[in-house]
Amino acid sequence: MLTWRRSQRQALESVDGAQLPVINSYPPRTAQAPFPPPREFAADEGAAEEFIRLFHAENPSAGPVEHRLREVMSEISMTGTYTHTSEELTFGARVAWRNSARCIGRLYWRSMRVRDRRHVETAEQVADECVGHLREAEQSGRIRPTITVFAPDRPGRPGPKIWNEQLIRYAGYREADGSVLGDPRYVDFTEMVRRWGWRGGAGTPFDVLPLVISAGQGTPKMFEVPEDAVVEVDLVHPSYPWFAEFGLRWHAIPAISNMCLEIGGICYPAAPFNGWYMGTEIGARNLGDADRYNLLEAVAVRLGLDTGHERTLWRDHALVELNVAVLHSFEAAGVTISDHHTESRRFLQHVEREEKAGRVCPADWTWIVPPMSGSATPVFHRYYDEAELSPAFVQHPEAVERGLGRLVN
Ligand code: ARG
């Protein structure tokens, strides 16, 4: 039932490889037509059939598959597309998570809450529902994996798009001396929204960017995320009071918002989803990476380490303390987070369960192994199946460019 997904593979290759579209090679944009013309958004019958068969195989109570298949095929032949039942949508979204080879947190894939908002397609309503998503996903610190699914692409009528990579991300302001205040990853995105009239936030390293949303082929609109919908945690260290002086914080909810949810030949370009954080995503990558907040040296210096020689392992030591601070602070604030040791064990439990259920569990070693202490976690010591299965969350190259603020001249 499960097949390789060629279109996704090609999309990913062009993201990873050198064939990224060069922004300036897009046709020049005018005020009337700022985006590439819509593709034909007809549903692929083969993909539809494969999904409907998968749904019925895993949901025997849904009744005979042949009846539903006839219905879907006749809808496609008449309209070029078809409409998922709400059960199909919920199942499809959960299985897209189950199939996400890069995600270590899939043990709870069945628990994802699916907010069916397929009737929503104006930019204003999408923005509103994104804020509703954030509020519902975070119930007094207990984070619930949640997805909100907006209108799909239909023939001649593309669905809405959220440009931001995540619903909550921090601005990066390029300073006169070339340094960056905030998150360097979003310098271009920040400049883009400023050109479009965003006044900027308070001028801290953690100013939440506005949501940028376009409906169909319309021009994008910007929306501030209300402060009370953004739960954040101030970072302190359990043993080093000076750590608080860095004034660091991070948002509680990682909600990816620019990946397309593909189910049975239908694309839902706006389908933001969240889980909870694993500490290393913040402590090792967001705060530690040299091209992000780049804090290892500052932390090492405060720890009194000799940063003059790599062999003192000052980077490694600073990484550990940063990550201790992240886990401690989230825990103390009552916000869901997990550590990479626990999450690694859970992942292997997930792989085992999937195998017992007779399914392949696709996994990408390079993403599954945590960015610190790899070999101290059990996920390091084995290989995984690398199949690309559908339904899936897919990264379209243009969406990647939009998310980094690079699509507009
Ligand atoms: N690594 C990304 C970040 O730091 C989030 C990716 C999704 N993570 C998750 N735990 N669901 O913002």
TrEMBL record:
Entries under PANTHER family matching the protein: NITRIC OXIDE SYNTHASE (PTHR43410:SF1), NITRIC OXIDE SYNTHASE OXYGENASE (PTHR43410)
Name the record gives this protein: Nitric oxide synthase oxygenase
One Pfam family named in its UniProt record: NO_synthase
Complex and partners: Homodimer.
Example GO BP: nitric oxide biosynthetic process
Record carries keyword Cytoplasm: no
A GO molecular-function annotation: nitric-oxide synthase activity
Note: This protein is similar to the oxygenase domain of eukaryotic nitric oxide synthases but lacks the reductase domain which, in eukaryotes, is responsible for transfer of electrons to the ferric heme during nitric oxide synthesis.
E.C. number(s) listed in UniProt: 1.14.14.47
Keywords: Heme, Iron, Metal-binding, Oxidoreductase
Binding site for heme: C103
Family in the record: Belongs to the NOS family. Bacterial NOS oxygenase subfamily.
Function description: Catalyzes the production of nitric oxide.
SUPFAM superfamilies: Nitric oxide (NO) synthase oxygenase domain
Cofactors that this protein relies on: heme
Species in which this protein is naturally found: Sinosporangium album
Stretches assigned to the Nitric oxide synthase (NOS) domain: 102-109
Reactions catalysed according to its record: 3 reduced [flavodoxin] + 2 L-arginine + 4 O2 = 3 oxidized [flavodoxin] + 2 L-citrulline + 2 nitric oxide + 4 H2O + 5 H(+)
